[in-house]
Amino acid sequence: MRIIENKKELERYLETISFIGYGVVEEIEKKVKKIIADVSSRKDEAVLEYTRLFDCKEMEPVDLLVKEDEIEEAYFECQEEEPKFIEALKIAYENIYQYHLKQKEETWLYTKEDSVLGQIIRPLERVGIYVPGGNGSYPSTVLMNSIPAKVAGVKEIIMVTPPDKEKKVNKYTLAAAKICGINKIFKVGGAQAIAALAIGTELIPKVDKIVGPGNIYVAIAKKLLFGVVDIDSIAGPSEVLIIADSSANPKYVAADLLSQAEHDTMARCILITTSKELAFEVVENINGMLKANPNPIASQSIEKNGAIVIIEDLEEATQIANMICPEHLELCCKEPEDLIFKIKNAGAIFVGEFSPEPIGDYIAGPNHVLPTSGTARFFSPLGVYDFVKRISVIKYSKEQFFKDAPFAIEMAEKERFLFHANSLKVRLEDVQK
């Protein structure tokens, strides 16, 4: 793991550090464009063809929609065999729901002289959620992406997730979907699933917005179809930045760095610390943990993208953090509360040694869908506000129109939009008669 100890080396590191996600991969983009075109023209026929090609060659049209009894069977199996998991899902659901309830916006109107102005809040009608699948299990993705939509008032939530080789969806994912009240689930993954949700097929309904993580094919499909459909973001590799002083527990810090490293070989794990002793203890703990539990992905991530920056004081640490704009930022120092409001750019801040990033991933309540690749400069965590649209309201009285129209005419004429001005003038003439 790279250790940076001097100013010049730090400057070079910050110049070269790249939070640009997966980058532009032209060959993959060409493939994704072809998939989108196929789904657009051949609908379910193309969806089934790609599902057979990439996920399960035995899939038939009747298999694409997850049946109600499959969901019930998965939930019952989890409840009977792993009741603690169902309890965890329910606790997480309640925590996430209550947190997002605070984000609800209300319609508002106000009177200004003789006019009424305002904003109507309307939920999106139908939303699509992409949940990675195959051999994996991502129940937390179901919770984090569907609950804010439900709080917002979205009427219909459609979930897509790739099946395994036996045509099945992971039982933990299905159990989470039941608890969240997902309306329909389809056994479709990859770029073809994003295309189906964006364009609509005979079986899979067209949605207003697509949210949820996926591989590079999913990310590129979302990027290409943005505008046809709304999306949450183009997610890049996961990131964690930890600010720590000599009071931090090196075992905890090492464990938290590795918790992000296991996501992806491109995941970025950074420690900024005022303590050289802590830095070397963290490296020792990382090596020990990887030896006890070998993980090629985490090892490669730490080796390629891991860095420890040794600095003079915590003020400098916050400045560096604001330049990097990390997805996850942990404050592991003696008085972490002193640093919170010095942070301008981060997806989520985890305060103190008992607030590790994984507690936020699963149970705390705030959303774990966060801006990556430096986009915390201008993006926010996924929330209720992502599932509503705002409609402006303008109501003028005759008297208020008479007052304001001449100024609007002045501006319209300067922009050479003469029919804009005329629309106002014909009314103004009637008012003046």
TrEMBL record:
GO MF, one example: histidinol dehydrogenase activity
Binding site for NAD(+): Y130, Q192, N215
EC number per UniProt: 1.1.1.23
Associated pathway: Amino-acid biosynthesis; L-histidine biosynthesis; L-histidine from 5-phospho-alpha-D-ribose 1-diphosphate: step 9/9
Record-listed substrate binding positions: S238, Q260, H263, H328, D361, E415, H420
Reactions mediated catalytically: L-histidinol + 2 NAD(+) + H2O = L-histidine + 2 NADH + 3 H(+)
Residue positions of the active site: E327 (proton acceptor), H328 (proton acceptor)
Protein name as it appears in the record: Histidinol dehydrogenase
High-level lineage: Bacteria, Bacillati, Bacillota, Bacillota incertae sedis, Caldicellulosiruptorales
